[in-house]
Design a protein that fits this description.
heterodimer; A: alpha/beta; Aspartate Aminotransferase, domain 1; Aspartate Aminotransferase, domain 2; five-stranded antiparallel β-sheet; 15 strands; B: alpha/beta; eight-stranded mixed β-sheet; three-stranded antiparallel β-sheet; 19 helices
């Protein structure tokens, strides 16, 4: 009798799904690490793993929520400031049984209210807590929403290329069709509406119903901030084409320039007024994993639904209820993120100092990194306006492409593996995110510590010089 | 709440009528989720799961008006994934929504109902009913969440020495001591080592940390296995009936077929392998490729603890039939009778001499159950054995799409599998807390079981383990007629009446599946012990009045 789970009879959608961020490069890097090589993991946006310290205040609050019996200890004040203690009492009162009880499947109502108030402060338009669902990280939210939308291979989801592979992986797991639209590298990874229309037309000619469009703003892996004009075009497009907009806005705190601040898709939608503001369906995602929080290990996030039919909201609630509830400590992190210490609170100065320090340092690192890449031979890189990544284009010489072929590797994988072996820098090849044919990239986070950054860029430059020296001849190199 | 229940119910009712015929037949043993084109599913997974979502006569019906605002939007109820529509999850279904509504009423006017509070016996959520967390576990979690205090001298004054030591150990296992970082997609390696030492202490057989996948509670692990196994509606998963609706819901979401096998109520919810085999053969004869067998031990909602000899038969059966054994063992610490003991399926299989490549076995464990009952933490793991390396790679890939499970839950999973030992400073207080909870749960189970058995027309098997009683109620024909006239399943009708009269929330048996024509409800044993007498008397009074009203 053959085993039930032989590879041949595994779900095909599972086999098809790809997730490069933890793929071949990461596995090789882990092996090298085990062998004792020093690895600089820049493959995942995981700030604390690279030494970023957690913000003190939220950790104080959650720690004390874990051990509420300490509230009765006369010495509790030695460890926790009064405003943290007050917050603990506040959050415990929002739960029914502390951190150890399942909450409402959509998250604690009191915290959803805090999220709604945050959204209103941010956008200037009221938000309804009933349409906010807390999740165990943004990824879970994306999966739930895509699960509700995708019925089969004839349902298409518009996804930017390059994209964060969560989208391609989830769409293939659910058996839907990814409809790519290309971001324009020469226009600072802006969205070209003409190209978008072309993609839709092509998908439709293949019998695909385009049901939703994903935007990642600020961009992952591309780091651009979408302009208000661009967002308006997108919303008009969604309106005309009857497409749900999925706004991945998890990097909204990570902005490294002043010309293009983050603006939420929801605010632009509301600004546009009726009929568009009443009709375009929008789901916006947020998380505690990014920003200056970087609390990846907590798995906390939320999504907010705008203009989604109440019956569909009910169905999404049902799906949430099968997983019982998101983890409660992360819900509290989310509450604290949207409602942090205010001026005048005991912990305000420290909180402010810590968060400013992180953001300012990230801004400096974004510059060091993109400048560093642009000083390298055959490397060009748009400035990282936001998010946590640089996505330089590597112009690989034909000989290198040939060598990759001979080694049975995709050219950018070949390059990234060589980079890893030579320098310990663990990146993700551009092919994991999608790129135009014949063009090669890599993604690296801007997260290594600021003081390590110059050395890392030097070591990259040295490797790249040697690589180019080895493979470049006088026939020139690949161009887009 | 549930403004739209009425019209949803309408369609479901129409849908139930279509199904009624086929489901009255006990021979209709395979229910496949099919029909990707119809606005409403032709065949939901099991009719039984629909009854709790059936008509709510009190629901307002303004829904059409408000829904028309959405007439031009792309995602309509008939254009969402039909698998989403099909799946049902009764533990948080209609009765719970009614309960929440009553609770709101009481907030506004404490005299609005003949009771002053709602008692949630619908869900295994112990700490929401006042159970206190285990101190040692929480000390360690607090220290790991805020390691800055570990370096303070005063910390020793308010935290136990072994919690401090354990927190240091755990932090040292985490690269960079970063509890705020994503971990390895299977979970932090050091914590998996700890879990394996706990499994080994439990089973007497070694466990491999590479076999452990830490997850946000057991549910995502179950989903992952269903996702791997189910390719289409032609793939079947054998599930006990009654079952915990996570299984039916997950199978429906992944578009597979639930192949039911019935537990025998007359023999204390016994699992008869010959019956399972019959169901397997019936399914196969219909072209269903049966891929796995789900066993819940201790049982949910049925509370039975399998005998080792029975488990051996199950292991042989899975081995001979080429089935993956999916062992839901989340209640392994919840055993209430001296004549029963928990044995993990892995231990049973290894004791029989079966090694890694002889049988494919997945064991699910959770921090939400046991004496700890840490539901809000969403911690858990699955131990997978007997899978080829290329399958393991696929599992790893699936785990990595969601990056990792939450770190606090991971740490807690390691703690429950490796609690304080003799000689540790917290050992005595830890065992006292644990034993107090377990012995109180045993007393509560017995009191409720006796009370239920004393009611007219009610029989209830003992809860040998887990957290639930699943009494059978012989409803008078008059009551069944009355239920029909309000288009409700008879057990849902009973549960609703019980809730309206007493504030006690239970889940109708139809949410779990039951032999057609029998009626049950599931009631947790979790209200605090001092509340049990009041619950018993309310339940008794209600049942008497109900029978007086409907006795034939």
């Amino acid at each position: 009798m053959s085993k039930s789970l032989d590879y041949e009879n595994l779900n095909e959608n599972v086999k098809e799904c790809q997730y490069a961020v933890r793929g071949e490069l990461y596995l090789r890097a882990s092996e090298l690490q085990k062998e004792g090589k020093k690895i600089i993991f820049t493959n995942v946006g995981n700030p604390h793993a690279l030494g970023q310290k957690p913000l003190t205040f939220p950790r104080q609050v959650v720690a004390l929520c874990q051990a509420p019996f300490l509230l009765d200890d006369p010495n509790v004040g030695l460890f926790f400031p009064a405003d943290a203690i007050a917050k603990v009492k506040h959050y415990i009162s929002l739960t029914s049984g502390g951190l150890g009880a399942y909450s409402d499947s959509r998250g604690l109502p009191g915290i959803r209210k805090e999220v709604a108030e945050f959204i209103e402060r941010r956008d200037g338009y009221p938000s309804d807590p009933e349409l906010i669902f807390l999740t165990g990280g943004a990824s879970i939210g994306v999966m739930q929403i895509l699960q509700s939308i995708i019925r089969g291979a004839h349902d298409g989801i518009l996804v930017p290329v390059p994209q964060y592979p969560l989208y391609s992986a989830t769409i293939s797991l659910l058996g839907g069709s990814l409809v790519p639209y290309f971001l324009e590298e020469t226009a600072n990874w802006g969205l070209d509406i003409g190209n978008l229309r072309q993609s839709v037309a092509q998908a439709r000619s293949q019998g695909i119903t385009v049901r939703a469009m994903v935007i990642i703003n600020p961009g992952n892996p591309t780091g651009q901030c979408l302009s208000e004009a661009n967002l308006k075009e997108i919303l008009n497009f969604c309106y005309q084409n009857n497409v749900v907009l999925l706004g991945d806005e998890v990097y909204q705190q990570n902005i490294y320039q002043d010309e293009r601040p983050f603006i939420s898709a929801r605010k632009v939608l509301m600004d546009m007024g009726p009929p568009i503001s009443k009709e375009v369906e929008l789901v916006s995602f947020h998380t505690v994993s990014k920003g200056y929080w970087g609390e990846c290990g907590q798995r906390g996030g939320y999504f907010e639904m705008t203009n989604i039919s109440p019956r569909t909201v009910e169905e999404i609630y049902k799906i949430s209820s099968i997983a019982l509830s998101p983890n409660v400590p992360a819900q509290i992190f989310m509450g604290l993120m949207v409602n942090p210490p205010k001026p005048g609170d005991i912990s305000y100065d420290q909180y402010n100092r810590e968060s400013k320090g992180i953001l300012e340092s990230l801004r400096k690192r974004a510059h060091i990194m993109t400048d560093g890449f642009n000083s390298c031979r055959n490397v060009v890189c748009n400035f990282t306006e936001g998010a946590m990544y640089s996505f330089p284009q590597i112009r690989l010489p034909p000989k290198a492409i040939e060598a990759a072929k001979n080694a049975g590797k995709v050219p950018d994988v070949f390059y990234c593996l060589k980079l890893l072996e030579a320098t310990g820098i663990s990146t993700v090849p551009g092919s994991g995110f999608g790129q135009k044919e014949g063009v090669f990239h890599l993604r690296t986070t801007i997260l290594p510590a600021e003081e390590d950054m110059p050395a890392i860029m030097d070591s990259f430059k040295k490797f790249n010089d040697e690589f180019m020296e080895q493979y470049e001849d006088y026939r020139g190199y690949s161009r887009m | 709440m549930r403004k739209f229940a009425a019209e949803k119910s309408k369609s479901l009712l129409a849908h139930r009528k279509r199904l009624a015929v086929s489901l009255q037949h006990p021979t209709a043993s395979v229910f496949s989720s099919q029909s990707h084109h119809n606005p409403l599913p032709q065949s939901s997974i099991l009719l039984r799961f629909l009854s709790s979502a059936a008509a709510n006569p009190s629901a307002p019906s303004e829904s059409m008006a408000s829904d028309s605002d959405y007439s031009s939007t792309p995602v309509k109820i008939d254009s969402i994934n039909p698998k989403v529509l099909e799946c049902e999850y009764a533990v948080r279904g209609e009765i719970v929504n009614l309960a929440q509504k009553l609770q709101e009423d009481l907030k506004v006017n404490p005299d609005s109902h003949p009771f002053d509070e709602i008692i949630y016996c619908n869900i295994g959520n112990p700490q929401s009913l006042g159970q206190q967390p285990i101190t040692f576990f929480r000390e360690v979690l607090a220290l790991c969440d805020h390691p800055a205090i570990l370096d303070k001298g005063e910390t020793q004054g308010i935290f136990s020495a072994d919690s401090i030591e354990r927190a240091f150990q755990i932090l040292d296992q985490i690269p960079g001591r970063a509890t705020g970082a994503y971990s390895h997609s299977q979970g932090i390696k050091g914590l998996r080592d700890t879990i394996c030492s706990g499994i080994e202490a439990r089973d007497g057989f070694p466990a491999d940390p590479n076999d452990i996948f830490l997850t946000d509670g057991a549910s995502p692990a179950v989903h992952m296995m269903m996702q791997l196994l189910i390719r289409s509606e032609n793939d079947g998963i054998l599930c006990p009936i009654p079952q915990y609706p996570l299984y039916s819901a997950s199978i429906a979401l992944h578009g597979g077929s639930l192949v039911p096998y019935y537990l025998d109520e007359a023999t204390g919810w016994g699992l008869e392998v010959s019956d399972v085999k019959k169901q397997l053969e019936t399914a196969r004869s219909k072209g269903i490729d049966v891929r796995a067998l789900v066993v819940i031990n201790p049982g949910n909602p049925t509370g039975q603890v399998l005998a080792e000899s029975n488990q051996q038969q199950i292991v042989d059966f899975c081995k001979n039939e080429g089935l993956v054994l999916l062992a839901d063992e989340v209640y392994q610490e919840n055993i209430y009778v001296p004549d029963k003991q928990f044995h993990s399926f892995k231990k049973v299989a290894r004791s029989m001499g079966y090694g890694e490549t002889d049988i494919s076995l997945v064991s699910f464990q959770s921090v939400s159950k046991g004496y700890y009952g840490e539901c809000g933490k969403r911690g858990g793991y699955m131990e997978v054995t007997g899978f080829a390396p290329e399958i393991r790679e696929q599992m790893y890939k699936l785990a990595s799409v969601n990056l990792c499970s939450n770190i606090s839950g991971q740490i807690l999973a390691s703690l429950v599998m490796c609690p304080p030992k003799v000689g540790d400073e917290s050992y005595e207080s830890y065992t006292a807390e644990r034993d107090a909870i377990l012995s109180s749960l045993a007393r509560r189970a017995k009191t409720l079981e006796d009370a239920l058995n004393s009611l007219e027309g009610v029989t209830c098997n003992r809860a040998e383990g887990a957290m639930y009683l699943f009494p059978r109620i012989s409803l008078p024909n008059k009551a069944i007629e009355a239920a029909k006239s309000v288009k409700t399943a008879p057990d849902a009708f009973y549960a609703r009446r019980l809730l309206n009269a007493t504030g006690v929330v239970v889940v109708p048996g139809s949410g779990f599946g039951q032999v057609p024509g029998t009626w049950h409800f599931r009631c947790t044993i979790l209200p605090q012990e001092d509340r049990i007498p009041a619950i018993v008397s309310r339940l008794t009074d209600f049942h008497k009045a109900f029978m007086d009203e409907y006795r034939d």
